[in-house]
């Protein structure tokens, strides 16, 4: 009988493909929009992941995210170093500065100043040059993102027709940061960031020279815990002794993500799109599956008249829903994955974690179960005599 249920499902081609279309489109929209949302949110904390050397990030208590600008006092560094359990603590500068390129164009970049002595906090993956090259005079390292090297910080040269021809920034190119000379000594490979400004690494002391004179300049303190020391416990001790905010890397990432989720309309916009996908599935697939069951009520009635129990008929309807849901879910997730793979990661934020297929499957299950339950009611109430009465 279950085999007959599958034949009934596949035999009605128009309604079957309508059900698959609705479920596949709902799965595609839910998975795609969820993956783009996760990709965008993950970019907000990209700088934290690109600085894996630190166990703990010490900031101003009022700091809202890693991109927030609330500077610390210079004495805070020594106070953090004095906390038992701290293996090392180094300063970090992070701020937006104006840059003048070699062809005279101006833009804005994010300057990251790392500890002069240890170079802790520097980029972890270099494509050209070495982090140690920052010890050269006026040295900076530029990240390799398309936004940085090919767009905002591309170098212009005059072509044969006199028009500027732009090329990606390379080692040896020069620029001016806040009217001070800077020479590119390396190209690093950082993760895609949510911020529009290209990242430029240099030493902490040189970053202070680039930065206009202000009383407080240190953005954060990077801390490494001693071997055997729990970073979470050490963070609590730093907060208790200094009055500053101290968070391990993972909680600091979630704090940054939480800020963007609370203070922007991004979650609402993507939530509406995801909900729209769900309701499209309910409207199309649910209605088509219900109509499919109504169209086959005469067959169910005939089976019931021949002795088939209501439980067996319900199993048949449930099996039809599960098969249609599984195929539609597979098609939708496949299309969403193909969409993500076909796009350049520096143009579109797309991260499909294992949670997204599970959530999508849950949404499809709700659609299928809802449609199946409504259809089952008609099957249970079906009077076999009505089939033979016309």
In short:
With 390 residues, the protein is of the alpha+beta class.
Describe the structure.
- This protein has 390 residues and is an alpha+beta fold.
- It folds into 2 domains: 2-43 and 266-388, no CATH class; 73-243, no CATH class.
- The protein has 13 helices and 12 strands.
- It has a 6-stranded mixed beta barrel with strand order 2-3-10-5-9-8.
- The two termini are 24 Å apart.
Please write out the topology.
Elements: H1 2-11, H2 13-44, H3 46-49, E1 56-59, H4 75-81, E2 86-100, E3 106-114, E4 126-128, E5 139-143, H5 146-152, E6 155-158, E7 164-167, E8 174-177, E9 180-188, E10 199-203, H6 204-210, E11 220-225, H7 231-242, E12 245-248, H8 249-263, H9 266-295, H10 297-305, H11 310-342, H12 355-380, H13 384-388
Parallel strand pairs: 3-10, 5-9
Antiparallel strand pairs: 1-11, 1-12, 2-3, 2-8, 2-11, 4-9, 5-10, 6-7, 8-9
């Amino acid at each position: 009988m279950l085999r007959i249920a599958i034949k009934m499902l596949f035999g009605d081609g128009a309604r079957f493909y309508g059900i698959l279309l609705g479920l596949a489109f709902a799965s595609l929209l839910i998975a795609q929009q969820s993956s783009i949302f996760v990709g965008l949110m993950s970019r907000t904390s990209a700088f934290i992941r690109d600085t894996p050397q630190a166990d703990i990030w010490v900031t101003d208590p009022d700091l809202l995210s890693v991109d927030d600008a609330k500077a610390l006092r210079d004495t805070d560094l020594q106070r953090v170093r004095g906390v038992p359990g701290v293996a090392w603590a180094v300063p970090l500068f992070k701020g937006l500065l104006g840059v003048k390129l070699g062809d005279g164009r101006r833009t804005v970049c994010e300057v990251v100043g790392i500890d002069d002595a240890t170079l802790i906090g520097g980029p972890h993956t270099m494509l050209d040059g070495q982090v140690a090259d920052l010890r050269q005079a006026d040295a900076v390292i530029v990240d390799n993102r398309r936004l940085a090297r090919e767009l905002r910080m591309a170098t212009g040269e005059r072509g044969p027709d006199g028009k500027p021809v732009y090329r990606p920034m390379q080692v040896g190119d020069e620029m001016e940061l806040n009217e001070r000379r800077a020479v590119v000594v390396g190209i690093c490979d950082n993760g895609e960031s949510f911020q529009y400004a290209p990242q430029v690494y240099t030493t902490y002391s040189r970053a202070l020279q680039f930065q206009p004179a202000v009383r407080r300049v240190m953005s954060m303190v990077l801390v490494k815990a001693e071997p055997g020391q729990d970073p979470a416990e050490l963070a609590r001790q730093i907060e208790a002794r200094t009055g500053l905010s101290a968070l391990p890397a993972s909680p600091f990432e979630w704090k940054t993500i939480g800020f963007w989720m609370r203070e922007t309309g991004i979650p609402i916009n993507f939530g509406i799109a995801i909900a729209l996908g769900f309701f499209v599935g309910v409207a199309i697939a649910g209605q088509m599956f219900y109509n499919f069951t109504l169209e086959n009520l005469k067959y169910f009635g005939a089976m019931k008249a021949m002795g088939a129990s209501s439980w067996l008929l319900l199993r048949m309807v449930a099996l039809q829903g599960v098969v249609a849901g599984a195929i539609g879910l597979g098609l939708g997730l496949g299309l969403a994955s193909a969409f993500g793979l076909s796009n350049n990661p520096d143009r579109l934020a797309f991260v499909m974690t294992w949670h997204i297929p599970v959530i999508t499957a849950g949404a499809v299950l709700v659609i299928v179960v809802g449609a199946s339950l409504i259809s089952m009611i008609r099957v249970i109430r079906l009077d076999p005599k009505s089939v033979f009465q016309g």
